[in-house]
Amino acid sequence: MNFVSTRGQTNPHSFSEAVKVGLAPDGGLFVPESLPDLSGELDSWKGKNYPDLCTAFFRHFATDIPTDELKTLIVDAYLRFDHAQHAPLVKLDEKIDILELFHGPTLAFKDFALQLLGKFYERQVILSGESINVLGATSGDTGAAAISGLLGKPGVNIFILYPDGRVSPLQERQMTCTEASNVYPLCVTGSFDDAQAALKEVFGDKAFSQSVSLSAVNSINLARVLAQCVYYIYAWLQLPDTRRAKTTFVVPTGNFGNVLAGWMASQMGMKVAGFRVATNQNDILDRFFSSGDYSVGDVEPSLAPSMDIQIASNFERFLYYTLGEDPSKTRSTMQEIKERKAFSCADPKVLRSMSSSRMGDTEIRETVSSVYERYGYIADPHTACGFKDLDSLEHCVILSTAHPAKFPEVVEEALGQVSTHPILDALKKLDIVKSPLFPDAESIKAFIVSKQ
Ligand SMILES: *Cc1c(COP(=O)(O)O)cnc(C)c1O
Questions:
Q1: Is 271 helix (H, G, I), strand (E, B) or coil?
Q2: CA-CA distance, 310 to 295, in Å (whole number)?
Q3: In this predicted model, what pLDDT tens digit does every residue of 372-386 receive, in sequence order?
Q4: Rounded-to-integer distance, Cα 168 and Cα 386, Å
Q5: If you write DSSP's letter for every residue of 376-393 in order, what string do you get?
Q6: Are strands 183-188 and 156-163 parallel, antiparallel or unpaired?
Q7: Distance from the CA of 140 to the center of ligand 1, in angstroms?
């Protein structure tokens, strides 16, 4: 299997090459040359444990990695999950199941992708004998998950920029209390956008980025999307046969990576009733799916900060598929979005391919408390956004994207009790190690060079 760019101006890449490069050289995102039809095979995967299911799925994509090696990578990637099922399905009532995706080392769903991506990077370093420097900017969870995935890996240095004082104290501890010598959290003055802009400039210096084998860690890597397909299939296989096609997956959404993965699994033969994009007050995707209007506004900080996003990077992959896998139409639509900061769509087939909902902060607080009263279940503020307008759905699986203990203030305020987790408690005893930096390209480059 080879991978092509959504913008059609990049040579086909093998799986390992596409994972290594991240973004396609023409500015597009990698997608499989064609999506495999898994419908005949899915049932035979029932009963497989998580790593085995993941291996069976990746066999279709990572065709340049020998099966035994692939299996070992995947088993190792998921060793640090603290639940035997990795992604347990918890029944709230006849209508609602929760798919808990927070049993990885940083207690958010991003661990599913980044623990595995860390393994792919490690393999790359071993094969090439060259060390790599991974650089990313984060407004919270991605940084912690990326650091955890690459922690202590020989030949890999990881540099994560984050805006000083604008990530939660626990998120900062997750990034800075690692005790690992290959991890460099860089707290920069200014906003996340300033950090992001400086980072783009560093990557734009091709001579520099080649000289230190610089690699980007962000939500558009192909391996991340594929890794996320697996838990949808895992959950779907656990549902009674008669229920599967009546189930809607409800996905708290920011960058659109998570829900896109489920939707891609459905395009490969996982038959479901549909997908629901659940947003917070940053509702560009709710506006799109309810009215066809995709116009980029300003980000308003919310109680579900990992969904505070206005430009959903993975949306390009969805556009590509809904535009009939046509790279030139994808190119012109992306160009339009870039120039006008807006795009509108009137095609009912596209708009009906997912439903959507929106939840503001007041309602997030109320929902955390009403879900607890009704089911005795503590939902984190991101997961809470999924509990909106469920009446029209026959059966749903709500994806729980983070452990509630990551957001103690909201939970405590809503429930009058604290949610804790031993991993987070242990962090509070460790020293914070971080490097303050100006968010300009030259300072970042100098810092990276000083650590070689
Ligand atoms: C990243 C994140 C999201 C948003 O996921 P996307 O793939 O960006 O849509 C939702 N909830 C939590 C807790 C997250 O960390």
A1: coil
A2: 9
A3: 999 999 999 999 999
A4: 22
A5: S----HHHHTTSSS-TT-
A6: parallel
A7: 10
Could you give the CA distance from residue 232 to residue 228 in angstroms, rounded to a whole number? Answer: 7
* Spans of all domains in the chain: 89-107+223-421
- pTM, full prediction: 0.95
Model pLDDT for residues 93-148, shown as the tens digit of each residue: 999 999 999 999 999 999 999 999 999 999 999 999 999 999 998 877 889 999 99
Beta-strand (E) ranges in 351-448?
355-358, 395-400, 435-437
Q: In this structure, which residue's CA is closest to atom 14 in ligand 1? A: 306
Ligand 1, atom 1: closest residue by C-alpha: 306
Tokens representing residue 365 in the block: 């607080």
Question: Could you tell me the fold of the domain covering 89-107+223-421?
Answer: Rossmann fold (3.40.50)
Scan for tokens 């599967």, then name that residue: 244
Q: Which residues are catalytic?
A: 110
Q: Is the CB of 402 under 6 A from ligand 1?
A: yes
Nearest atom of ligand 1 to the alpha carbon of 145: 15
Rounded to the nearest angstrom, the distance between the alpha carbon of 185 and the centre of ligand 1 is 21
Both tokens of 96, joined, read 């609602």
Contact (CB, 8 A) for 319 and 333: yes
